[in-house]
Design brief:
By secondary structure, this protein is of the alpha/beta class. It has two domains: 2-123 and 264-297, Periplasmic binding protein-like II (D-Maltodextrin-Binding Protein, domain 2, 3-Layer(aba) Sandwich), CATH 3.40.190; 125-257, Periplasmic binding protein-like II (D-Maltodextrin-Binding Protein, domain 2), CATH 3.40.190.10. Helix content is 35%, strand content 20%. The chain has ten helices and eleven strands. The protein has helices spanning 2-22, 52-65, 78-86, 101-110, 141-148, 182-192, 208-216, 252-257, 276-286, 288-297, and strands at 42-47, 70-76, 92-95, 117-130, 138-140, 173-177, 203-205, 221-226, 235-236, 238-240, 263-270. Strands 1, 2, 3, 4, 6, 7, 8, 9 and 11 form a nine-stranded mixed β-sheet that branches. The protein has a two-stranded parallel sheet with strand order 5-10. α2 (52-65) links the parallel β1 (42-47) and β2. α3 (78-86) runs parallel beside α4. It is globular and about 55 Å long. The two termini are 27 Å apart.
C-alpha cells in the first residue's frame, strides 16, 4: 500500500501541473470545459480529502486512455467541495458524506431549482488508528463516543483497561479532522450521535493522511481515518457496536456486508444529471478499471449489483 501511495504522490505532482494548464475558471466563477453537458473536455473536481488520492489515481489512469480530457483534482474537505458545487464552480464534488437538506436547498436556490445528483462510487471503512506501541486490540462505539464526545468520561488509557507503557502520562491524545470534513461529520453522526458534539481539546488535522501520520509518531494517540490510509507505522482496532461484544476489523468483506459498524459509501455529486464527458468519466469510475483502482488504493469496490446498504 505504501508503494501505491509513493507512486500516487509522484503522479499527483505531474497531473496537477498538467491539469492546471488545461483548466481555468471563467470570469463568472463557474467551471470551464466539461461541465455536466457543456460539451467541453475539462472536468473540475474538488472536495473530500478522504477521496483525493483515489480521485487523482482515477484521473491519471483515465487521461492516459483519453488524452484529450483534462481533469483538475483538489481536496479541502467534503464541505468545501459541496459549497463549490452549490456555487457553480465545479463539475463534480467528491464527498464522504451525503449532502444535507440545507445544502440541497441552497443548491436548488442557486441553480434554478435543478437537483444535485448523487453517485455512489466506492465504499470506505472508517478505521480507528492507534500507535503500534499501544497493546490495545479492539474498542466499541460506546467507548469511542466517551473518548471523543462532549461530556465523555474516558480520558486515560487505563480507564479502558490498557497499560500503555509507551504513554507515561496515560492521557489519551485525541486526533480528529477539521469541521468541514465529511469524515468529521460522519464520525459525529454515527459514533457520537446527531445531538452530541465533539469534546474540546482534540488535535484536528486537515487531511486523512495527516491523522495517520500524527498517530504514527504519537504513542498516546488515537485517531480515525479512511482504511485506504493504513501504513506499517500504525495499527487499526477491531470495532464493536457495544462494549463486551466481539470487535470486527475493517476489510473489503466486512465493509460490504455491513459487519464493520462504521463503513460508509463515498460519493461523487454533480449539478444535475451527469452528461457528456462527466458522465463518461463517472461510468468509467464505476466500471471494472475504475473499481480496480478503488481496491488498489485501499478502499472497497462496489458490489457487482452496485447496491450499498444504508448506513
Amino acid at each position: 500500500m505504501r508503494q501505491i501511495r509513493r507512486g500516487l504522490v509522484a503522479g499527483i505532482v505531474a497531473i496537477s501541473f498538467a491539469f492546471a494548464l488545461g483548466c481555468e475558471k471563467k470570469k463568472d466563477g463557474t467551471a470551464s470545459g466539461g461541465g455536466s453537458g457543456s460539451g467541453g473536455k475539462t472536468i473540475v473536481v474538488d472536495g473530500s480529502d478522504t477521496m483525493v488520492n483515489l480521485s487523482q489515481a482515477w484521473a491519471e489512469a483515465y487521461t492516459k486512455a483519453h488524452p484529450d480530457v483534462h481533469i483538475q483534482v483538489s481536496g479541502g474537505g467534503s464541505g468545501v467541495g459541496i459549497a463549490s458545487l452549490i456555487g457553480g464552480k465545479l463539475d463534480m464534488a467528491n464527498s464522504s458524506r451525503k449532502m444535507d437538506e440545507k445544502e440541497v436547498a441552497k443548491f436548488k436556490e442557486n441553480n434554478a431549482g435543478k437537483e444535485p445528483k448523487e453517485h455512489i462510487v466506492a465504499i470506505d471503512a472508517l478505521a480507528v488508528y492507534i500507535n503500534p506501541k499501544n497493546p490495545m486490540e479492539q474498542i466499541s462505539l460506546e467507548e469511542l463516543a466517551e473518548i471523543y464526545g462532549d461530556g465523555g468520561k474516558l480520558d486515560k488509557w487505563s480507564q479502558l483497561g490498557v497499560s500503555n507503557t509507551a504513554c507515561p502520562g496515560d492521557e489519551i491524545t485525541r486526533v480528529s479532522r477539521q469541521n468541514n470534513s465529511g469524515t468529521y461529520a460522519y464520525f459525529r453522526e454515527h459514533v457520537l450521535g446527531k445531538k452530541r458534539d465533539y469534546k474540546n481539546g482534540s488535535i484536528d488535522q486537515s487531511g486523512s493522511k495527516d491523522v495517520v501520520a500524527l498517530v504514527a509518531k504519537t504513542p498516546c494517540a488515537i485517531g480515525y481515518s479512511g482504511m485506504g490510509y493504513k501504513t506499517d507505522d500504525v495499527k487499526w482496532l477491531k470495532v464493536s457496536k457495544k462494549k463486551g461484544e466481539t470487535g470486527v476489523a475493517p476489510s473489503i468483506e466486512t465493509a460490504v456486508n455491513g459487519a464493520y459498524p462504521i463503513s460508509r459509501p463515498l460519493f461523487i455529486d454533480t449539478p444535475g444529471e451527469a452528461t457528456g464527458v462527466v458522465k463518461d468519466f463517472i461510468d468509467w469510475c464505476d466500471g471494472p478499471e475504475g473499481q480496480k483502482i478503488v481496491k488498489d488504493v485501499g478502499f472497497v469496490p462496489l458490489p457487482k449489483d452496485k447496491t450499498v446498504a444504508s448506513r
